[in-house]
């Protein structure tokens, strides 16, 4: 029997909400037996802004910039999912040129999101150099976003029915130059980390989540694929013309923190592969479908989900025929994936919790909304 202290054999410890390793204002209540984690409880809501309720008091187009503020390191993906959901209600489809540009911008955003994940995840575990490396490449992507629409972080790139702006002169050349430069930079990251003894020891067999547990908790994205499940909505339920692109779905078998790292590294390489195809497919033509100036979808409901950098991002919208949505419900990957912290953390050490929270890749703006 464990020795008791103050009539308790367990120590309850608050981790956060100010803790820098929790990637935002997350509070985790840990039940500890010494250094060993016996249980966890996530306390969220410190960043709640009522985004879904705000939607009921805004027109469809007025609400569009709000979604950029949820997962603020993947704002382009947020906007794509929302526009696709409203377009489904309206029964319209973006023109081919707009769809190709959407794919290009979304894949650039996927790389930018994975880069900030890699840099901060490495920093959590004590590796400082990768953060400077990843921010260097992310800056190149943000420069493209800034040239396109003036924004770097909360990038409002799309309109319901197509694109917000026409491409600037030299867009294809800038993306092509990035694609030529970036694979060698991924090699640098892997040279720094993949065989590093400390990195491997800190990640291997930590936060294991098998395929059955992933399905039980509704976990999607790199966490699911690292457990051996080949599920990617770009292949399973293609949107924006993804069925016309040639790319692979990286998977691993162990479902541990190291495998999730490898999956995300390979995903960045696949995004470059998609980008090379996209810039060759951009054809002349309109960037907006025929959408009325005052958007009033018919009475009905629609659900559309996309493969965001962190997993399945879904929008469920109910229309009552007015200019404002009757209800909007977001299915955010960060929020759903965070449920899996408990089985991943049980039996780990306190130091491992930092690595596990980092490997889930949460953004609290998306968790709390």
Assembly state (oligomeric): single chain
Terminal CA distance = 44 Å
CATH class designation: Mainly Alpha
Structural class: alpha+beta
Percent in helix: 40-55%
Number of separate structural domains = 1
Could you please describe the fold and organization of this structure?
48% of the residues lie in helices and 13% in strands. By secondary structure, it is α+β, with helices and mostly antiparallel strands. Strands 1-2-3 form a three-stranded antiparallel beta sheet. Strands 6-7-8 form a three-stranded antiparallel beta sheet. A two-stranded antiparallel ribbon has the order 4-5. α2 (60-67) packs antiparallel against α3.
Short description:
Helices cover 48% and strands 13% of the residues.
Question: What topology emerges from the helices and strands here?
Answer:
Elements: E1 11-15, E2 27-33, E3 36-43, H1 51-55, H2 60-67, H3 75-90, H4 96-125, H5 129-149, E4 158-159, E5 162-163, H6 171-193, H7 197-203, H8 211-217, H9 222-226, H10 233-236, H11 257-281, E6 300-308, E7 311-319, E8 327-331, H12 333-338, H13 341-345, H14 350-360, H15 364-368
Antiparallel strand pairs: 1-2, 2-3, 4-5, 6-7, 7-8
Helix pairs in contact: 2-3, 3-4, 4-5, 4-11, 4-14, 5-6, 6-11
């Amino acid at each position: 029997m464990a020795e008791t202290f103050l009539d308790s054999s367990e120590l309850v410890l608050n981790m956060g909400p100010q803790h820098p390793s929790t990637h935002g204002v997350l509070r985790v209540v840990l039940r500890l037996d010494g250094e060993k984690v016996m249980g966890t409880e996530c306390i969220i809501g410190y960043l709640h802004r009522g985004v879904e309720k705000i939607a009921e008091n805004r027109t469809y187009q007025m609400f569009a910039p709000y979604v950029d503020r949820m997962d603020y390191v993947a704002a382009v993906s947020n906007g794509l999912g929302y526009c696709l959901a409203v377009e489904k209600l309206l029964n319209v489809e973006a023109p081919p040129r707009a769809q190709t540009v959407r794919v290009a911008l979304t894949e650039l955003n996927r790389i930018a999101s994975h880069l900030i994940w890699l840099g901060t995840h490495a920093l959590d575990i004590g590796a400082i150099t990768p953060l400077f490396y990843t921010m260097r490449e992310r800056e190149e992507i943000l420069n493209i976003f800034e040239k396109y629409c003036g924004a770097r972080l909360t990038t409002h790139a799309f309109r319901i029915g197509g694109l917000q702006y026409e491409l600037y002169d030299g867009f294809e050349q800038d993306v092509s130059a990035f694609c030529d430069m970036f694979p060698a930079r991924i090699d640098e990251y892997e040279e720094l980390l993949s065989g590093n003894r400390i990195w491997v020891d800190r990640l291997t067999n930590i936060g294991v989540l098998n395929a059955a547990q992933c399905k039980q908790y509704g976990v999607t994205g790199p966490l699911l694929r690292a457990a051996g499940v080949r599920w990617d909505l770009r292949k399973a339920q293609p949107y924006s013309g993804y069925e016309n692109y040639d790319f692979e779905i990286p998977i691993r078998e162990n479902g541990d923190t190291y495998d999730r790292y490898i999956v995300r590294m390979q995903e960045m390489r696949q995004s470059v592969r998609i980008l090379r195809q996209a810039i060759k497919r951009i054809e002349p033509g309109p960037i907006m479908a025929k959408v009325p100036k005052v958007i009033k979808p018919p009475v009905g409901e629609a659900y559309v989900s996309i493969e965001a950098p962190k997993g399945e991002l879904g929008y469920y919208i109910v229309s009552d025929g007015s200019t404002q949505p009757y209800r909007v419900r977001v299915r955010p990957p960060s929020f759903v994936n965070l449920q899996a912290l408990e089985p991943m953390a049980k039996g780990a050490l306190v130091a491992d919790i930092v690595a596990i929270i980092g490997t889930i890749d949460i953004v609290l703006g998306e968790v709390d909304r």
